[in-house]
Amino acid sequence: MVHPADFIYAGMDIHRETHSVCVLDCFGQSIWEETIDNEEKGFVKLYQKIEKIANRRKLKTVFGLEDTSGSGLLLAHYLAKKGCFIKTVNPVLVDRLRKKTTHPEKSDILDAKGVAKVLIRDGIDTLPNYKISQSNQLAKELRELNNDRNYLVAEQTRLKNQLHALLGLTYGKEYKTLFKNTFSQKALRYFKENPLSEQIVKNGFPYSIEVAGNRIRRKADRLVALISEIKEIEKEQAEVMEKTDQKIETLPGCGMVTAAVVFAEVKDVTRFNSSSALAKYAGLSPRQRSSGKSFHHQKTYSGNRRLNAAIHRIALSQIGRRGCDVAKEYFQRKISEGKTKKQAITCLKRKLCDIVYLMLKKQEVYNYQPKKLLT
Description:
Order of helices and strands: EEEHEHEHHHHHHHHHEEHHHH
Number of strands: 7
Number of helices: 15
Low-confidence stretches: none
């Protein structure tokens, strides 16, 4: 347990080009406020100034950063290499603190001051540490790859919908019967060369044939490029996952892409004391709503929604037609106990969270043990 009076508190508001810093003492009094550039010169200025303040007061420094993975990654990495004490502060905590003020104003310096006040109010022991480790670095790489893939998949879906509409115009229902997969490489090449069906051309096309053909060719070319890019990213995801020495993809219903999402969002599993802590982080633990003799729990929509969605996909896959027999049996048992299908899936997700926690912690392949996992 650390004593608050032993520290000065440096709150950082992170932006792409600049960072704002506000240094407070343990009583919340401002010591220094400044805006620095998001480059090494600015980092050196920040470090030297705060070191000078800390040495003069004979105190230690704790840094609070809202963002340690995006725009604030370079700063966090620089301070970590200097051996600084860094805490990751959730923006929600700063926003809650702002709303409690009489006049909830907002500026970069005020946000930095809010971060420092969270460090004082919530206590250093309760906030997560920022540390450089191989697990964290690989998780960050995977998260960036996951974001890139999600963006490309969303663009691919939009293009497919647009191409569906165009082919329905130039081919009618016939285009769905030409190929088993309308968006295979072979099909896209065919539609590029033959954007309009012979029947449509004979009967007369109400729009410009040249414009319609060019639109189909452009979308087909972009789809081919997108499919290639997505495969390239998935290959990189697989290479990074090999470096983690994790075997999450051996869990039934969890492919490599989903495993990459799980690892990227969990990061370092050792920061969770138990599977219950991981479940709460993923938003899989019910929220208690009790008063007096009344005890109730309700579903929570907080937590890491990316991790929640990944575990949800695993659960749906396991109870699917080609899923996991054990999961199907557990799902049906919960329904027979009077739970709805949605509630039964929630129960299965909670059990899967326990399994994921053990697999990550022990770095082992999936090994079903019914008495321990699904009872």
